[in-house]
Structure formats: C-alpha cells, structure tokens
Amino acid sequence: QVQLVESGGGLVQPGGSLRLSCTASGSIFPIETMGWYRQAPGKQRELVGTMARGGSTTFADPVKNRLTIRRDNAQNAVYLQMDNLKPEDTAVYYCYANGLRVGGRYTSYGPGTQVTVSS
Predict the structure, then answer these.
(1) Parallel/antiparallel/unpaired status of strands 77-82 and 67-72
(2) How far does CA 114 lie from the centroid of its chain?
(3) Where does the chain have alpha helices with state H?
(4) Per-residue pLDDT tens listing for the chain (119 residues)
(5) Cβ pair 115, 93 in contact under 8 A
(6) Neighbour tally for 37: CB within 10 Å
(7) Phi, psi dihedral angles at 85 (to 5 degrees)
(8) How crowded is residue 14: how many other Cβ atoms within 10 Å of its Cβ?
(9) Which residues, in sequence order, are CB contacts of 79 under 8 Å at separation 6+?
(10) Contact assessment for residue 95 and residue 80, using Cβ atoms and an 8 Å cutoff
C-alpha cells in the first residue's frame, strides 16, 4: 500500500497563497495519478486537482483559475499552489494517489492537512 504524507497548510489570510507538498512511499510500480482532494466542515470530500504521470491535469471548476499542480515523478512527490484564497477554501486537504499494485489497483489518501482562510 502506498503511504502519503502532506506538509504545509495552516492559517492563511484571504487573498493569500497556499503551498502544499506531498511525498509518496511504498510504491512498487510508477504512480499513475497524484493530486489533491479537500473536505470542508459538513461537506463531502471533493476534487481539487490531479496530474497524471504524463502531465495531463484535471482541475475542479471552482479553483481551476487559481491552481497550480506540479509533480516530481523521480521523487514521487506532488505539489499544490493555490492563489487568491477565499474563506470557502477552508478545508482539510488530502494528498491522493492511484496506480497499480500487486494483484490489482489502489487508491490512497494522506492523513490530511488543515488549511484555514481567515483574517
């Protein structure tokens, strides 16, 4: 099973920027997709954005114009930058990965990191 560990997050003022990092370990095969999900209080977990190993991206509409995702395949790492943050961006942000494993496929999430947008 692939383990994911996030870093970054914390308290950010409205209009500020968010930078998160995530590193994966335990993968035997190249990781196919890495990215980010988030869950706000009282809401379901939702997509923020993902990047396939080849570089193609999927972004959620509410953030796509404010979002940058970068991958380092050699380091099994993915990075998120979100600009012009709004209070509604407050959520726990989860790193995400999927790919092949022995016997099938996996989907993994990290433990999450809290991001609070407030003045």
Answers:
(1) antiparallel
(2) 12
(3) none
(4) 799 999 999 999 999 999 999 999 998 899 999 999 999 999 999 999 999 999 999 999 989 999 999 999 999 999 999 999 999 999 999 999 999 988 899 999 999 999 999 99
(5) yes
(6) 21
(7) -65, 145
(8) 12
(9) 19, 20, 21, 22, 69, 70, 71, 72
(10) no
